[in-house]
Amino acid sequence: DQEVNEYSTSLAIRVSGFDVPRPIKTFEDSGFSVELMKAISKQGYEKPTPIQCQALPIVLSGRDIIGIAKTGSGKTAAFVLPMIVHIMDQPELQKEEGPIGVICAPTRELAHQIFVEAKKFSKSHGIRVSAVYGGMSKLDQYKELKAGCEIVVATPGRLIDMIRKKAFTMLRATYLVLDEADRMFDLGFEPQIRSIVGQIRPDRQTLLFSATMPRKVEKLAREILTDPVRVTVGEIG
Ligand code: ADP
Ligand code: MG
């Protein structure tokens, strides 16, 4: 409707897809728990950034998303906050073990930044986050993963390595994030990404974020996302 259109335009947001949830204006509009609201204000986040305004209600509704927005726009919280909600919504006792949320990023540095952000929002919920990228010895990493976690933040190569070593299974994974998908392709990770996606149940929720959408990334998105909503913020895309 008119009001939503004007609001979206003021945020420089473009969306495509059917039944797109309305953008939010405040974090309260997301219906986050008191705990999560506390963690958000502890970060000094007063209001959602444009990509968060539109991505949060989409992802919280369980939809797949293609998020196209430049660096520094606040994409991390746009996928980490709904991931916390998704994990807290799981039944307490589950037969399966292994991560529920799986985040892939192109480089160790980027994965580490996400790891740090994810930990800030997970701590008060008793959610365990494991980092799966170079820097820690493979043996220590293996042991940590064996002990269990709800979220892994990984570079694709090391993640495949740990799956192959049976450090965990993907049986419980239902929330997959591919962050900076274009850079992962630039770095030649397409086969690894396809392998990882192939090991996660098809009824998962899938989120793909990218600064640009080259044809190869577009093709992957068509193959692995289900009825995604596409959100573009700003000039690019
Ligand atoms: P991107 O992944 O889009 O490059 P980040 O998620 O790394 O962006 O966020 C960029 C910076 O903005 C980070 O320092 C992050 O802590 C901060 N940030 C994210 N969301 C908000 C918000 N709602 N309010 C204020 N700062 C925010
Ligand atoms: Mg980012």
Automatic annotation (TrEMBL):
Motif range (Q motif): 25-53
Domain DEAD-box RNA helicase Q: 25-53
Name of the protein in question: RNA helicase
Domain Helicase ATP-binding: 56-231
UniProt superkingdom: Eukaryota
Family of this protein: Belongs to the DEAD box helicase family.
